[in-house]
Write a structure and sequence with these properties.
The structure is a single chain. The protein is α+β, with helices and mostly antiparallel strands. The chain folds into 2 domains: 3-85 and 202-358, ApbE-like domains (T-fold), CATH 3.10.520; 97-189, T-fold, CATH 1.10.3980. The chain is 30% helix and 24% strand. The chain is built from 9 helices and 17 strands. The protein has helices spanning 64-85, 97-102, 113-128, 138-153, 163-169, 202-216, 311-323, 326-336, 353-358, and strands at residues 21-24, 32-33, 41-50, 53-61, 109-110, 178-181, 186-189, 222-226, 229-233, 243-248, 258-264, 268-273, 278-281, 284-287, 301-308, 339-344, 349-351. A hairpin with a 2-residue loop joins strand 13 (278-281) and strand 14. Helix 1 (64-85) runs antiparallel to helix 6, helix 3 packs parallel to helix 7 (311-323) and helix 4 crosses helix 5 (163-169). The longest helix has 22 residues, at 64-85. The structure holds adenosine-5'-diphosphate and magnesium ion (MG). Adenosine-5'-diphosphate binds at residues 132-135, 137, 141, 197, 199-200, 203, 228, 272, 276-277, 288-290, 292, 315, 318-319, 322-323. The site of adenosine-5'-diphosphate has 23 residues, from helix 7.
Length: 370
């Protein structure tokens, strides 16, 4: 996803996120912009290695060492939470989600307060979406993961899992069977064949925490973007009334056209799209967001972007808005005071009234068609 600092050279970012959010900041001229004495300058950088995506961070600071301080806070928190929420790798001295999965059906596992907090958010999202956002869907997602890997390695070997295989993997996939003991700070998965996959919310949770850490370190003005999970801090210090966030058309890759520009004065914008991770078999695209009701990729939506003050909530809601029928998704947004834009597979676009007010496209014809 390209993150662009307007009127400066584009900073090309090699990620596959679609309907990616690109950032514009008018009047900026590059990585570092000199300001008047005593004022802040703008610094931008990016790093890899967390949550399978590129993280770009822009902040206004007095000097490079102040910027470094904010960057360290952000990178440290993203790295720490990445290790905590990882389902594939072990880290020395860390009892992470992989460890919880491996202890399924056995004794409770002692975990960090962050894991407790994130899993509570996951259980809430499960209840709230009638099971559409399901962090206990691990066994089913793992079947899809295997087929996607195989197809990616060798496209001639691209196959689709049978319903029988998916259905047998889905035997124990209820978030009600995640037993959390907040007092003891432990988690236990009730059945041995249970597995957590926290991909739908972990990144948003981490972005929210990273922003809080940077704020605590003194950051007053900046933007954090972890592969389409964008959070803004304060306002630009140059007098503009909002940050401008570019919404890219789904599917176009790096040079993709910006289809909308959002004015954000706070909170987070999170995108879920069907072009992010997928494989193709017999000409059909199988993407990475699975509808627990069918056990196959959710149909109907190409991409959705959700705005909410809290990035963890926005992340959960973006996955929900992708899976749920539009009318239900819309009610869910209203319930949480979230705003959203949907781009459907047939090219139709719908937006909530609040999104429309913040959106350039929304101020145009009212209903844009791609
Ligand atoms: P992204 O990972 O691209 O930011 P999402 O936030 O929508 O997009 O999360 C998608 C990820 O969530 C998948 O890669 C998978 O790990 C997981 N996932 C897929 N389907 C579901 C589902 N129905 N409920 C919970 N998690 C899911
Ligand atoms: Mg999500």
């Amino acid at each position: 996803m390209p993150v662009r600092i307007a009127r400066a050279a584009a900073i090309a970012l090699a990620v596959s996120a679609i309907l990616a959010l690109s950032l514009y900041a008018a009047r900026d001229r590059g990585w570092r912009q000199a300001g008047a004495p005593g004022q802040t300058e703008k610094f931008s950088t990016e790093f890899f290695g967390t949550f399978d995506t590129v993280v770009s961070f822009t902040a206004y600071a007095k000097d490079a060492s102040e910027f470094e301080r904010y960057l360290e806070a952000v990178r440290d928190e993203m790295t720490r939470l990445h290790q905590q929420f990882d389902i594939y790798n072990d880290y020395e001295g860390i009892s992470n989600i992989k460890a919880v999965n491996e202890a399924a059906g056995m004794a409770p596992v002692k975990v960090s307060p962050e894991i407790i907090g994130m899993l509570e958010t996951a259980k809430e999202a499960y209840a709230d979406t009638g099971g559409a956002v399901n962090a206990a869907l691990g066994p089913v997602l793992s079947v899809w993961h295997g087929y996607r890997e195989r197809a990616t390695e060798n496209s001639a070997d691209a196959r689709v899992p049978s319903y029988a295989e998916l259905s047998s993997a889905s035997a124990h996939t209820s978030c009600d069977d995640i037993e959390i003991d907040r007092g003891d700070s432990t988690v236990r998965l009730r059945y041995p064949d249970m597995r957590l996959d926290v991909g739908a919310i972990a990144k948003g949770f981490a972005v929210q925490r990273a922003v809080e850490r940077a704020r605590a370190a003194g950051l007053k003005s900046g933007i954090l973007n972890a592969g389409g999970n964008v959070a803004v801090i304060g306002l630009p210090p140059d007098g503009r009334e909002a940050w401008s966030i570019g919404v890219q058309a789904p599917g176009g890759g790096a040079g993709s056209e910006v289809i909308d520009i959002l004015s954000l004065t706070g909170g987070s914008a999170v995108t879920s799209g069907n072009y992010q991770r997928y494989f193709t078999a017999d000409g059909v695209r199988y993407h990475h967001i699975i509808d627990p009701a069918t056990l196959y990729p959710a149909k109907g939506v190409k991409a959705v972007t959700v705005l909410h003050p809290d990035s963890a909530r926005a992340d959960a809601l973006s996955t929900a808005a992708f899976i749920l029928p539009y009318a239900e998704a819309r009610d869910l947004m209203a319930k949480h005071g979230a705003e959203a834009v949907w781009i459907f597979e047939d090219g139709r676009m719908e937006m909530t009234d609040g999104y429309r007010r913040l959106s350039k496209a929304g101020k145009g014809a009212g209903r844009a068609v791609m």
